[in-house]
Each structure stands twice: as C-alpha cells, then as structure tokens.
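Quick one: examine the sequence and fold tokens given here and explain what the tokens say about the fold. Here goes:
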Amino acid sequence: MRKMFYFLASLALVFIGCADKTPQINPAAYSNIVFENNNIKEWFVLQNIISVVRDDGFIEVEVVGKNISSSKQILTYNVDWYDQNGFTIKSILVKRKIASIENGKSIIIHVISPNANAASYKVRFGLPTSDDELRDQNVNLREYRGE
C-alpha cells in the first residue's frame, strides 16, 4: 500500500512538472492590441488578455504584459472604445498613460468602458514622446498622485 502511494505521488509530480504553465491567449484577443512601435515587441510580452461584458452593459478589459528585457522600460498605452457603428467614443476617461516597467516585472492594465454603448475596444501601446512627458508633468496630475 505504501509503495502504491509513493508511485501515485511521483506520477502526479511528473505530470504537474511537465504541465505547460504559459498562459494561453485567445488569438482573437490580439486583434484588439495595436503596437504603434515594433521595438516594443522585443521586450514587452503579452501574458493574458481578458474582456467581458458585464451585467450592466459595460465592457471590462484586463491586459497583463511583462518586461522581459534586462533593464527598466517605459511605454505608453491607451484604450480606444468604439460603438456598434465603429465610431470612437469620446470621453475624458480615455487618455494616453505612461508606464514604467522594471525588468522582469509585469504590468496589469485594467479598464472599464466609459459607457454601456461601447461594443469593442483597441489597446494601443507606444513609446513616450516629448508631448507625453509634458502631459505627465501636469501639476494637477502630480498633485493627485501625491507628488
């Protein structure tokens, strides 16, 4: 009986150790991701993309990406929302954000559509420009962050 237990335990460890632990991303989810600069793909890897339509009609999206380079990287991202006809939904909530990601660390982008009329979305990743840096130095934004 003891031998049988050890055999089953070791067999379970073999199967657990061989399991593929990389997240499987639905290929259709990539159609909602736009890389404005191809250099980002060299160090930024998407790990998971989830989107769901909530009971109240709003779309909730979560994108997880990881910096696989050996140094800290900076990128910008924003989420564009579209209605049933494909028109962009304008909102003060939709703005480009700057993110600093340390090497080997992940970033989680979690957003909810600005209204229930949203039917689809695009997440755009880019590299910061001088305009983005000026936006980031906004006094009101820095005060909100507690700087």
Remarks:
- Residues 19-23, 139-147 have pLDDT under 50 and may be disordered.
